[in-house]
Model the fold of this input.
Amino acid sequence: MLKKYIYIIILFSLSVFSAFLIFDYSFKVNVHKLLITSYDKLISKEKKYEIYQDKIDQGYLSSKFGELKLTKIKLSEKDFNVPLGYIELVKNNIVFFRTDGDLIILDKDFNKKKIKNNITNYFNKDLDEKYYENKEYPFDPFVINPIRDILYHEGFLYVVLLSKEIIDQRLGYTTIVLKGKFNLNNIDFEYFFKPDHFAFGEIDTWHTGGRLVADDKNKFFLAVPDYGKINLINNKKSIFGKVIKIKSINDYEIISQGHRNPQGLYFDMDEKILLESEHGPASGDEVNIIKKDKNYGWPSTSIGIHDDYVKFHNHSKKGFEEPAYAWTPHSSGASQITKVNHSSKFKFKDHYIVSTLSGKNYYYGNHLYIFKIEGNKVKMKDKIYIADRVRDIHYDKNNDRIILSLENEESIAIIEVN
Done:
């Protein structure tokens, strides 16, 4: 208790001192980080995480809602596990598409079967050899492994892909969607969405996320990253940095813009709302409630700092839509979003979950964040330490379980009520 009182005194003293000074936003965030770090050390938070890790090693997770059972299914190891792969549910089976093109299905007993497919025909690997072996662009697994999401919908498997093409003798990048009739023996993919918009030249390969969902009216929504091409984000003739509705193979409607690097997209069939998560600059990861014709601020406005493009940190004052939630002072590496069914045995039933990758440290990334939506804001109710980068997450309502893909361990994880 004494340590906590010391922390409160220090915090109060610094707050009073700060009131007499005019700090820029970046400095305030750094002071906040310092205070948070000091607090973590004072209360020996590291020891708590050691306990969490011990439980994980025993097959359990700790949460405010009670202890949960954790099961891991090891996948074959690959040379590059970032990004690892994406999950879908087909009846009682788990479908897992590795970003290098390996497609497997796991039955109820976790027996694995490989499904043949033609996805690598769309990888344009000859361009990898030409541009990466000649060192014109640095080698990067985010480009070599181009799959960004999968969606099973009404008998078809849809795949979001980072696509590379030579257009007028220039290397161009874009986001496409493929579609194939689901079959346990072989899936033959073809184009479902193929825009004629490209990001040319060198791109920021860490800004190449993307997610696909279908709503209750069978309309498809695609979140497209900015590829590091700042000039394209607010260009109405570009798909980059936007959430779009797919209308045909090469036609779309812009739903929202001002997005940086979308990593999660979820349509709530009950509430009829579209949720998106994205990576911001340092301490600026967001969860957004997507509304038509709204601008979410990037690149000029973000809660985050340490980016030359960010000039403002208050969205509403600049006419932009405020994030429903933003991580500060540390980033979380927010990834996919799912929702636990209202009839679940989980004590956080009817709550959303956003998974995270590697944020600042194990206090922020490597967690599952449990939240509710109250008004236009996300209210975090708990965070569950998972000790790994969670690339994808799904709630399996047929079996009342949560399914994750864990990048570091190259595993699929199952969370159930203990």
Notes: The chain has five helices and 29 strands. The mean pLDDT is 91. The helical segments are 2-19, 25-42, 45-57, 125-133, 141-144. The two ends are 33 Å apart (CA to CA).
